[in-house]
Amino acid sequence: MAERETIALNRRARHDYDIIETYEAGLVLTGTEIKSVRARRVDFKDAYAAVEGEEVWLHSLHISPYEPGSRENVFSRRTRKLLLHRREINRLMGRTVEKGLTIIPLKLYLERGYAKVELGLARGRREYDKRVAIAARETRLEKDRAFAERQRRGT
Predict the structure, then answer these.
(1) Which of 57, 81, 143, 144 could disulfide-link to 28, CB 3.0 to 4.6 Å?
(2) Is residue 98 over pLDDT 60?
(3) pTM (predicted TM-score)
(4) Residue 112 CA: distances (Å) to CA of 35, 81, 116
(5) Using CA atoms, how far apart are residues 106 and 10, in angstroms rounded to an integer?
């Protein structure tokens, strides 16, 4: 398997949404954008993907302008095309029609020199769901810490 270099993670996504399915998509970028991506100048705030016509587009992903790029730079929050297989696009098109489902970027990484985005088909969590998830995570961490402590003591 090709080596993946993770550029950015959308940490809020797993807190604010329940991820139902994940997809890997190629990202169409200009020359100066890929240089900014390699420099890790990416922000997921408010980013989402949408099926428009028979194509999938990534909206509001912020890629900072490449400093030496000057006139070659493009708008930092422009809409970027995502590359998916036809059957994946058709599946996403059908699933996003369902109430409450959206497509959000989870991770941006480089694979064999190409920028890729991990997309998640997600349903938004309500505030009480978030609190339940936080409580479950804290309980799991406490249990793991106690287990590690017992292992360290040898009992």
Answers:
(1) 81
(2) yes
(3) 0.75
(4) 15, 19, 10
(5) 5
